[in-house]
């Protein structure tokens, strides 16, 4: 009996020294590192760190792509920091498009809640997977692969994208090529596009060089 009590006592002692850290709410006042944000002191954490109302309203679609992506990543929603999850809202006006892009840090699961969205991705073997989605449909985009979403119904469309990372990252292919100071000559060499096309796209997207 004494032996059993000693074992139970040792288990409780071990548990006390091996406490699980339940969460790591992002300290947005600290610098972000490749490993993510540092944890806010537990004493400063409140319920508001785990709640967000940022996806209630539609994003502004009066822009060149007629679309808006409203992210709730760790930088906007501190409670998801370190949990390997996040979410974003996608609004597509008629004619709207989210151009070819990648999320280098996570896979994406898209749920359509309004309208019709044609979505697809390209595998590393250059195989194309495309489908027109409607309300209630979901589609997954594997981590790091180029993918896109296009309004396919002529009415405002809405979807919610969940990610397997609190900081999935985003790189839009068109912006990477034509919205910065990458020299036009290099763009032309690497894409086989003529100079007049590259210069036109840079003018539209605000690039130089």
Explain this structure.
- The protein is α+β, with helices and mostly antiparallel strands.
- It has 2 domains: 42-165, Jelly Rolls, CATH 2.60.120; 176-205, no CATH class.
- It contains 4 helices and 10 strands; from the N terminus they run αββββββββββααα.
- It has helices at residues 2-17, 173-178, 184-191, 195-205, and strands at residues 67-72, 86-92, 97-102, 108-114, 116-122, 128-134, 138-141, 147-151, 157-163, 171-172.
- Strands 1-2-9-4-7 form a 5-stranded antiparallel β-sheet, with no helix packed on it.
- Strand 5 and strand 6 form a beta hairpin.
- The longest helix has 16 residues, at 2-17.
- It is globular.
- The termini are far apart.
- The model has no long low-confidence stretch (mean pLDDT 92).
- It is found in: Secreted, Extracellular space, Apoplast.
- Pfam families: Cupin_1.
- This is Germin-like protein.
- Mn(2+) binds at residues 101, 103, 108, 147.
- Disulfide bonds join 24-39.
Looking at this protein, list some descriptive labels.
2 domains; 28% strand; five-stranded antiparallel sheet; 4 helices; 10 strands; Jelly Rolls; alpha+beta; 20% helix; 209 residues
């Amino acid at each position: 009996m004494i032996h059993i009590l000693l074992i139970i006592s040792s288990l409780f002692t071990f548990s006390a020294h091996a406490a699980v850290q339940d969460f790591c709410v992002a300290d947005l006042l600290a610098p972000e590192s490749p490993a993510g944000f540092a944890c806010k002191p537990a004493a400063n954490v409140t319920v508001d760190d785990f709640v967000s109302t940022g996806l209630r309203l539609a994003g502004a679609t009066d822009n060149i792509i007629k679309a808006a992506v409203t992210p709730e990543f760790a930088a906007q929603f501190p409670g998801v920091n370190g949990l390997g999850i996040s979410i974003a809202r996608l609004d597509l006006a008629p004619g709207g498009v989210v151009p070819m892009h990648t999320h280098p840090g996570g896979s994406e699961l898209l749920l359509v809640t309004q309208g019709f969205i044609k979505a697809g991705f390209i595998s590393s073997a250059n195989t194309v997977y495309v489908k027109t989605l409607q309300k209630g449909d979901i589609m997954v985009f594997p981590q790091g692969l180029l993918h896109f979403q296009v309004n396919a119904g002529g009415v405002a469309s809405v979807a919610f994208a969940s990610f397997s990372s609190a900081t999935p990252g985003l790189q839009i292919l068109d912006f990477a090529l034509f919205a910065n100071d990458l020299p036009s000559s290099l763009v032309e060499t690497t894409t086989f596009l003529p100079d007049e096309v590259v210069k036109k796209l840079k003018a539209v997207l605000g690039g130089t060089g």
